[in-house]
C-alpha cells in the first residue's frame, strides 16, 4: 500500500544532494543544450505552431557549449549505465515500493521544496517552470488537456527523491535501449563506449530486440522522468493519447528532433511525432517568460487537474 506523504517533505531529501541543487544544475544544463539546438534548427514541422514566443528574442538564450564539462560527465554516466538490464529492473522496481499518495498540486509543491533553483537570479523554480509551460499554452488558446499536460510534464522528476540511483536515470535526453545507438543523432554520442550493450550480439544490431516498424509503443526508451510519469498518467489519469505522447517523448530528442529510429515507427507514431513537436516549444521557450505566481494560479489549475486526475495519485 502506498504511504501518505510524511509531514516533512524533507523525509524525501537525498543525503547525497540535500537541497537538490546538483540535480537542478544538471537539469538546467540538459535543457540549455536543447534550447540552443532548437534555436539553431528553427523547426518548421510543428503542425500547430506556437504563437506565444513569436516576439521573443530567441537569441537571448544561453548558447550550447559543446565542451560543457558537467553535461559531458553527466552523459558519460547516463550513456554507460542505461542498459537493457537496468531498464527492465527499473520498470520492475518502480511501483514495487511504497512511496507516496498525493494529488498533483501536492506533488508540484513537493518537487519545488526538494529542488533549490541553483541559479536563483535567472532560473525558475520547478513549480514556476511547470506553470510557465502551462500558461504559455493557455495564452495560445490550447485545450485544457494540453494545459494540464504542460503543468505536470516534469513531475516525474520526483523519481530523483524516490530512490533513483542518481541523476542519470532521471533527466537527460532519452534513447532506445536494446538496439543500435544512432550515434550521429544523439547528444554526446561519443560517450557510449563503456555501455556493455554495445558488445551484445543482439542489442548492438540495427533493430536489436525489435522488429522493423514495430511502433514506439513497443520499444523500451531509456528510463527517466518521462517514462515514469507516462506510466503513472497512463494508469491514473484520463489524459488523451496525445498528452501521453507529449509526456513520454518530450526528452526523446534523437527521435523527435533528429529523426533517428524511423525504422521502428508505425503509423501511430506519425501522430505521436506531431504531438510532441507541438508540445516542445512550450517546454523550452517559456523559460524566459515572467515568473508566474503559484498562489494566484492555483485555483484555476486545481480546477483543470480535477478534470483529468483523481484526488490522490499513487507515486
Ligand atoms: Fe522534462
Ligand atoms: Fe520541462
Short summary of the structure?
The protein is mainly α. 43% of the residues lie in helices and 1% in strands. The radius of gyration is 19 Å and the shape is globular.
Note down, in words, how this protein is organized.
This protein is an all-alpha fold and 315 residues long. The chain has one domain (16-314). Helices cover 43% and strands 1% of the residues. The chain has helices at 21-41, 69-81, 84-94, 104-114, 126-139, 144-152, 225-236, 241-249, 253-256, 268-285, 294-308; strands at 101-102, 313-314. It has a two-stranded antiparallel sheet. α5 runs antiparallel to α6 (144-152) and α6 packs across α11. One fe (ii) ion binds at residues 129, 153-154, 283. One fe (ii) ion (FE2) binds next to loops.
The end-to-end span amounts to 11 Å
Q: Roughly what percent helix?
A: 40-55%
Q: What does the radius of gyration come to?
A: 19 Å
**Percentage of β-strand residues:** under 5%
Categorize the overall geometry: globular
List how many beta strands DSSP finds.
2
The helix count comes to 11
Ligands (ions, cofactors included): fe (ii) ion
**Widest sheet: strand ordering:** 1-2
**Main sheet: strands, sense, barrel:** 2 strands, antiparallel
Q: Which regions are unreliable across 5 or more consecutive residues at pLDDT < 50?
A: 58-66
Average per-residue pLDDT, rounded, comes to 89
Number of domains as seen in the coordinates: 1
* SSE order: HHHEHHHHHHHHE
Structural class: mainly alpha
Amino acid at each position: 500500500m502506498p504511504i501518505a506523504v510524511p509531514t516533512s517533505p524533507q523525509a524525501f531529501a537525498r543525503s547525497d544532494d540535500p537541497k537538490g541543487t546538483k540535480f537542478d544544475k544538471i537539469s538546467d544544463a540538459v535543457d540549455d543544450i536543447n534550447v540552443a539546438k532548437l534555436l539553431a534548427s528553427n523547426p518548421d514541422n510543428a503542425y500547430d505552431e506556437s504563437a506565444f514566443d513569436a516576439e521573443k528574442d530567441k537569441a537571448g538564450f544561453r548558447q550550447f557549449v559543446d565542451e560543457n564539462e558537467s553535461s559531458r560527465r553527466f552523459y558519460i554516466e547516463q550513456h554507460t549505465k542505461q542498459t537493457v538490464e537496468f531498464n527492465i529492473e527499473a520498470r520492475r522496481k518502480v511501483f514495487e515500493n511504497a512511496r507516496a499518495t498525493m494529488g498533483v498540486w501536492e506533488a508540484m509543491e513537493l518537487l519545488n521544496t526538494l529542488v533549490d533553483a541553483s541559479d536563483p537570479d535567472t532560473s525558475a523554480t520547478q513549480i514556476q517552470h511547470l506553470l510557465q509551460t502551462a500558461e504559455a499554452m493557455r495564452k495560445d488558446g490550447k485545450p485544457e488537456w494540453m494545459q494540464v499536460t504542460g503543468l505536470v510534464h516534469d513531475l516525474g522528476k520526483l523519481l530523483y527523491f524516490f530512490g533513483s540511483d542518481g541523476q542519470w536515470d532521471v533527466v537527460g535526453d532519452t534513447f532506445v535501449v536494446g538496439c543500435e545507438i544512432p550515434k550521429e543523432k544523439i547528444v554526446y554520442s561519443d560517450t557510449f563506449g563503456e555501455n556493455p550493450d554495445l558488445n551484445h550480439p543482439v542489442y548492438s544490431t540495427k533493430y536489436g530486440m525489435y522488429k522493423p516498424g514495430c511502433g514506439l509503443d513497443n520499444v523500451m526508451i531509456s528510463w527517466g522522468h518521462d517514462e515514469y510519469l507516462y506510466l503513472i498518467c497512463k494508469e491514473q489519469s484520463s489524459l488523451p493519447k496525445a498528452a501521453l505522447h507529449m509526456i513520454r517523448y518530450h526528452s526523446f530528442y534523437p527521435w523527435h528532433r533528429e529523426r533517428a529510429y524511423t525504422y521502428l515507427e508505425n503509423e501511430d507514431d506519425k501522430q505521436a511525432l506531431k504531438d510532441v513537436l507541438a508540445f516542445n516549444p512550450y517546454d523550452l521557450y517559456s523559460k524566459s517568460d515572467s515568473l508566474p505566481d503559484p498562489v494566484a494560479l492555483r485555483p484555476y489549475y486545481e480546477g483543470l487537474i480535477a478534470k483529468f486526475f483523481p484526488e490522490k495519485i499513487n507515486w
